[in-house]
Amino acid sequence: MTKFKICDSRQWQFLLFVTGRTIVIFTSILLFSESNVANAGQYPINIAQIMQTDSPDATLAAAELAYQQGKELYEQGTAESLLQAIAKFEIALPFYRKAGDRSSEAFTVAHLGKIYSDLGQQQKALSYLNQALSIRQQLGDQKGETITLNNIGNVYLNSGELQKGLSYFHQALLLKQQMGDKAGEALTLNNIGIVYLESTQYQKALDYFNQALPLRRQVKDKAGEARTLNNIGKVYLDLGERQKALNYYNQVLLPIQQVGDKVGEAIALNNIGTVYLDLRERQKGLDYFNQALPISRQVGDKSGEARSLNNIGTVYLNLGERQKGLDYFNQALPLFQLVENKVGLATTLNNIGTVYLDLGEQQKALDYFNQSLVLHRQVGNRAREAQTLYNVASVQRNQGNLNAALTEIKTVINIVEDLRTKINSQELRTSYFATVQNYYEFYIDLLMQLHKQQPSQGYDALALQTSERARARSLLELLTEAKTDIRQGVEPKLLSQERNLQQKLDTLEKRRIQLLGGNHTSAQVQVLEKENEALLEQYQQIQAQIRATSPRYAALTQPQPLSLTQIQQQVLDDNTLLLEYSLGEKRSYLWAVTNKSITSYELPKRADIEATVQKFRQEITTPYLRNSPSIDVLSQQLLTPVAQQLEKKRLVVVSDGALQYVPFSALTRPNSKGSSSYEPLLLNHEIITLPSASTVAILRREHKERKSAAKTLVVLADPIFSSDDERLQGKVQVFRPPVAENNLDSLALSRIATDSDISFERLRFTRQEAEQILALVPANEGKQAFDFTASRTTATSNELSQYRIIHFATHGILNSKHPELSGVVLSLFDDKGMPQNGFLRLHDVFNLNLQAELVVLSACKTGLGEEVKGEGLVGLTRGFMYAGSPRVVVSLWSVDDQATSELMKVFYKKMLQEGLKPAAALRIAQIEIWRTQKYAAPYYWAAFTLQGEWK
Fold this sequence. Notes:
Elements: H1 15-19, H2 47-50, H3 56-76, H4 79-99, H5 102-118, H6 122-139, H7 142-159, H8 162-179, H9 182-198, H10 202-218, H11 222-238, H12 242-249, H13 253-258, H14 262-278, H15 282-298, H16 302-318, H17 322-338, H18 342-358, H19 362-379, H20 382-398, H21 402-421, H22 426-435, H23 437-453, H24 459-469, H25 473-481, H26 492-517, H27 522-549, H28 551-555, H29 564-570, E1 576-582, E2 588-593, E3 598-603, H30 606-620, H31 629-639, H32 643-646, E4 650-654, E5 687-690, H33 693-703, E6 711-717, H34 744-749, H35 764-774, E7 782-786, H36 792-795, E8 803-809, E9 812-813, E10 823-825, E11 839-841, H37 842-846, E12 854-857, E13 865-868, E14 872-875, H38 876-883, E15 887-891, H39 897-912, H40 918-931, H41 938-941, E16 944-948
Parallel strand pairs: 1-4, 4-5, 5-16, 6-7, 6-8, 8-12, 12-15
Antiparallel strand pairs: 1-2, 2-3, 9-10, 10-11, 13-14, 15-16
């Protein structure tokens, strides 16, 4: 097997049908309206005789007979029957012309155009369809005209001439709306969405599909509804939302099979298979492709056949069977050429190039990539253009042409930056950005290789800036919009819909509490989960529409990540050292930046570091381990190169990947002078963690002019989780679960009960913790919210905006599958013993309006969240920063109740009585707890970390 110095086959982007980035979509084309001509069965006349007669009736009868036979053959849908149908329609056509039946002539040429389009002969199709359009316009047949406009648009779409297709679809849409034809309007909206999808304008595509879907349902067009659901699934797949895509695709297959749409069935099977291929379930994907292939062959769908062949080839390529993969690609290529499908042709050329690249035949690979690139540019699909340019850059790097590779990858990054800003939904923008992180990783590695060759040219500074461009971009944008009322000037109907959906989500949460608090079945829970998922999707779509139509949002300048000079000037000071990490497939990098210098280092590859981190996490979360070999190993990997620069400076750590789960305060200084005892890094360093260096600059800018809140501290602590809590005794409980056991671990995670391993027992030490903290401030400066008042109602009230410090001493929930459902658990019962929604979820946090200087989440795992490539841990921290707090103290694992209480006492004493900044106070508190014999193990003190502003 050939080995490469730079990269391996897993890095290559397989475009259309290969990784599921651009699978085929339904075009939902409607061809025929009802014919008003007589039934051919009434005219049993020999066609040969008609050639000899001038009888109008006989001529029309012959035309009808041939037309009806052609239509029946067309509806059989096989490759053979389509060719036979052409012959019949070609017999009918001159008879209709002879009889002067212009309407039937239009139907006939329209049929011929559709069949030739199905067979991939697009120029012939266009010739016939243009004849049909001209006749229908002359006859004033608006319905027929709209059908033909749609079909011509589809031909251009299939040919890759997207703008021409869009022009015809818009003409059709205008007529459909004037006619009040809801079914036709839905079809045309769907087709316009497809054009935008093919041109990678994902937000516009989704908007059109979401306009089409309710119309499909209104007119009870089940097959059309399935097509639009398929297309929405395609958008989500392109944006990296695989599970969501699969959910949509699974709704498509049955209705398509029920209406006997064989072409559609093959497409649906291919689409489902592509998701499984993208999920690395290769055998499952192959099974679906092998089901699709014979169906496409049966109906003579050459595009569908080529698509399945291409997908099967990809599976074998992923399995390492390169020659077998190449064989399938070479079968697909001539079929795409035959049907003049530029998109399919471009993709297959790219995939063949990928095989040759994998085989080490660099020049051959480059030739195929360049052929593919020309076609992608002709079609105007910028995402696929970027993927192919990335492959071109990879070849050039392998050939040692680093500067040429640099030119190409810069273009790729520019395309990505342009595409991501066109997606209004922050969730989908984040998902899309995750799918292109390999481009940024390539760019960083290339710049660092150039830095090795030319150390004085500033390539390391550019690599650092690229690292900043590759991370936490959505967070920067959220922080920029946080203090702008983006809802001002937005249509009231949209704001009403947003409020309505928020209320529905809250109502659903209450229903879930009641359900999970008593006897329930898994089927009942699943119904609620589906309803919740649908509501969340609607909520996100409404928020995307608000951003798209907000004058205030449009006026916001997109925040740009900082350059080296800007980081040095705006973020760092004389006593602060930035350590920024970037993990890579072949090697990782560390940049050590002061306000006057930058040095960079090469580290082990991602897999090696991840293995060490895994071992480290296992050991550091063990209560009895005061020291462990994994601490030393990880410290050596991450800090050895920079050990001499650490001195006693404040360390600002920007982590990547698995390193986000590492509390750097628990690491040790490498090569400590012969010391055999464990001395954590925090002994000499104040340590801050950040999602990116640019984040601090945005936080400082947004909070620069803000007035300080009037009061000091509010504490929410010791809520009521269980129906058998002693504080509920004597309360009039209208509702009491029949089983006195706590089901709230299922409830809180809401999607899947097994997502959580947290037990919701009362945290008795949180009350003591809260009382001791509140004793440090005057009574009129603090507020306690204990027991029933430690509630979601309190947490979401405007009163919280009066306090500089907000402290939550309760359980935290991490939902890594659905980070928007992570949150803080507050009192689940009111003072009458009735169950209530006590879950402060991430979307609730985003809707808070705080004036806080600090939020402390003294709860389990509050610092974690879903790890999203390019964003880091998407969880509660960003929610509270958006809500108005420039710094948040969070935990990286489930913490010991009593140890946390002791740590928080010292932390607040140092802040409130001795005037230390939060970061410095946290460090002192952790050192004091570490020096306590009982809590010396890192498990007890290292979980807490300050994220955000340290000044």
